[in-house]
Amino acid sequence: MKRILVGIKRVVDFNVRIRVKPDGTGVVTDGVKMSVNPFDEIALEEALRIKERGGAEEVLVATVGPADCQQQLRSALAMGADRALHVQADGIIEPLTAARALLKLIEREQPFLVILGKQAIDDDNGQTGQVLAALWNRPQATYASKLELVGQGSARVTREVDAGLETLEVDLPAVITTDLRLNEPRYVKLPDIMKAKKKPLDALTLAALGVEQRQQLKLVKFEPPPQRQKGVRVKDAAELIEQLKKKGIL
Amino acid sequence: MSTKILIVAEHDGSRLNVSTAKCVSCARALSGAEISVVVCAAGAAAVAAQAAQLAGVARVLTVENPANEHALAAVLAPQIAALAGPFSLVLGPSTTYGKDLMARIAGLLGAPQVSDIMAIESPTRFRRPVYAGNAILSVEADGAAKVVGTVRMASFEAAGGGGSAPIEKAAVSVELPTHTRFISVSAARSDRPDLQTAARVISGGRALGSADGFKILYSLADKLGAAVGASRAAVDAGYAPNEMQVGQTGKIIAPELYVAVGISGAIQHLTGIKDARTIVAINKDGEAPIFEVADFGLVGDLFQIIPEIEKLVS
Ligand SMILES: Cc1cc2nc3c(=O)[nH]c(=O)nc-3n(C[C@H](O)[C@H](O)[C@H](O)COP(=O)(O)OP(=O)(O)OC[C@H]3O[C@@H](n4cnc5c(N)ncnc54)[C@H](O)[C@@H]3O)c2cc1C
Ligand SMILES: Nc1ncnc2c1ncn2[C@@H]1O[C@H](COP(=O)(O)O)[C@@H](O)[C@H]1O
């Protein structure tokens, strides 16, 4: 079956005002809204569109994380994914661990395309896709803003890079990571949420996949960022220029 | 004890990117660091010569191969991983080039990666922003043999020149993949300063209303010798090209002067400008969050104010 695998990460919603815990052990997550990482929604949307155009037969979503993550897998199923895999793991899951687990799923499921987000908006690591592509020894096309399947065996990907837009051709299977402009994810309708409850969601464990959960980076301390001093209001352009000149900026 | 550090140079085939000099500054923050720079290219001589001049660099390694003409992570990563043996820290810039490449190297090495290093406190202790810069995290590489890192550009000044490090050809024999092919790059060349290194930046938001609307910013920028940036909303609407986007998912910049014009100041935008020395905000909504971080705030209509400013600085 022609299958696309999409990585889903549960993160603090992007609209939440982040507060660091006073004891520096993390950020406040109690009672805070959690969502699918926005870049992963884009990844899923892209996979669904490929399927709707006849380019794939099944869209599979997967996450590595604690039991709560099943909520986000259900959201992904409601958006239109066909099937979900939950790899149960508690504690810190580093990109290397997530990638190793995803690779095991790839070996089982044989997708021709794997789409991940370019970064998770909690850890802001931006690593998992590249690490996975390295472990898998397959092409990577990161920061995709356009994705076209060419014939059977390859894809053309436009990437958002510092210089502008770069186009690569990659043989499939390959790992793609999404940038914001790749697409705009669809809204989920209520009946889809009901339907999603009946879609298959299988639970596995890291141990069953034979992946060791190593933590190579110890999170020593979280601190709030330094605050900028509150500035002044100026009344018009002339006063602005005067102030900037006085400070030696102009 | 010295820490052996390998820095992966960023370049366009003829010129070394300033991002490499910033990585050198990051590495030099460790006392006793022994810094090597590796240049992978089709022909490396010109770029290697520039890297050899960076103050603090002990030697430059060149890896020449026609396959290195375009910076494809899948092609470069195995070559750099093959050289990484003697080094305990492998650094690259947190630019799209470095972010794409370094994590692939980390994957090949099975090493942890510290992304967006803003401070290096020991060979194994780093500080980095998480949650779009809303928290600063200190991490300790616990017993890892090797650490890979990307260096946050806004946190370091470029290392100076005056050095004369020896340049050595490195012998690397690894099989290079052909599964990834470069097709093209469309870089809008402009005479304006580079957004990431400019001392002055003027950015426009959704309020500019059209690509045409941005012209008043270009005009002012040219008077001030400034680069022009944009909010995501402005880029999404097609008013400005993607490489102009400032913020969490665009460029993180640290100019002397940042002028936000018709930008509301969403958290994701502010992440990109936190290190600017002076922030000016021009917005018709006095309640816009941008004013919370602005050193100078001016409430009013940008279409009236920007031409006035231009007249005053002409
Ligand atoms: C995962 C994620 C990542 C993101 N990354 C980024 C990023 O990297 N960079 C980024 O910028 N955004 C990013 N965003 C988007 C961000 O949340 C905001 O939507 C965006 O920054 C808003 O852009 P804006 O300020 O131009 O538009 P708006 O929020 O619409 O603000 C327009 C402002 O212009 C003012 N205005 C209107 N007319 C005038 C006038 N005539 N004169 C003066 N002022 C006027 C208004 O008062 C308003 O404050 C991201 C969002 C997500 C979810
Ligand atoms: N635990 C995880 N489970 C599933 N996918 C993940 C996980 N962690 C990261 N990913 C994917 O990798 C992308 C980049 O994450 P990161 O490297 O953490 O910034 C995310 O957008 C996800 O698509």
Please give a structural write-up.
The complex is a heterodimer of chains A (250) and B (314). Chain A is α/β, with parallel strands linked by helices and 250 residues long. Helix content of chain A is 28%, strand content 31%. Chain A has seven helices and 13 strands. Chain A has helices spanning 38-52, 70-79, 95-109, 128-136, 190-196, 206-209, 237-246, and strands at 3-7, 10-12, 34-36, 58-65, 83-88, 113-117, 140-150, 154-161, 164-171, 174-178, 201-205, 217-223, 232-234. In chain A, helix 2 (70-79) links the parallel strand 4 (58-65) and strand 5 (83-88). In chain A, helix 2 (70-79) packs across helix 5 and helix 3 packs across helix 4. Chain A is globular. Chain A starts with a strand and ends with a helix. The mean pLDDT of chain A is 96. Chain B is of the alpha/beta class. Chain B contains eight helices and 16 strands. Chain B has helices spanning 18-28, 45-52, 73-83, 96-109, 215-224, 232-236, 267-270, 302-313; strands spanning 3-8, 33-41, 57-64, 89-93, 113-117, 119-122, 125-130, 135-141, 147-151, 167-169, 180-186, 200-204, 227-230, 257-261, 278-283, 296-299. Chain B has a seven-stranded parallel beta sheet with strand order 5-9-4-1-2-3-10, with helices on both faces. In chain B, strand 6 and strand 7 (125-130) form a beta hairpin. In chain B, helix 3 (73-83) crosses helix 4 (96-109) and helix 5 (215-224) runs parallel beside helix 8. Chain B is globular, with a radius of gyration of 21 Å. In chain B, 57% of the residues are buried. At the A-B interface, helix 3, helix 4, strand 7, strand 8 and strand 9 of A face helix 3, helix 4, strand 5, strand 7 and strand 8 of B. Bound molecules: flavin-adenine dinucleotide (FAD) and adenosine monophosphate (AMP). Residues 7-9, 37, 39-40, 43, 62-65, 93, 95, 98, 116-117, 119-120, 123, 125-129 of chain A line the site of adenosine monophosphate (AMP). Adenosine monophosphate binds next to helix 1, strand 4, helix 3, strand 6 and helix 4 of chain A.
